[in-house]
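Chapter review: from sequence to fold.
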Amino acid sequence: MSECTSITDEKRCWWCHGDDLYRDYHDKEWGVPCRDDDMLFEFLILEGAQAGLSWITVLRKREHYRKVFDNFDSRKVAEYGPEKVEELLQDAGIIRNKLKVNSAIRNAKAFLKVQEKYGSFSEFIWSFVDGKTVQNNFSSSSDVPASTEISDRMSKALKKEGFNFVGSTICYAFMQATGMVDDHTTNCHKHMKS
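The token string follows.
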């Protein structure tokens, strides 16, 4: 399999070929620095939901997640009780995993505490990369790591703040998604442009 795929004469990272949703996500979001707390919360919940699954599975359910999780309003999600959990677990439009659904609620509560403690979640999370994107220069998919020393530290810190479903691999995927690291391969048209 080639590292990039050519669509309309532009090369893209190896993982986004063959699906318009993937391609659009790659071109418009992945690796673009995100400092908006609401979007960071959405990515945190979706990355946790993805654990053990492919990202395309989550992307295909993303709009429905937004609908049933009150557009990822962390204050509302933090207030979800047993009835809402049961309702979510019956909804085929999301990943119906009780641990993941409960994790979203737990993480919403932890998220609000971090906002209160640090002024914003963005301020806290971006501190792991000193406030700027780590620009990687990987030429091949095999060079891209699943986790790093930074994602290890982030995972440990998030767990200390009360989050779960935030292992180092999930944290690194979160960092890639939110532009804390730019892992577009060197032959991708988005490399160093996010």
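Two observations follow directly from the output. Strands lie at 4-7, 10-13, 134-135, 181-182. Confidence is low (pLDDT under 50) at residues 1-9.
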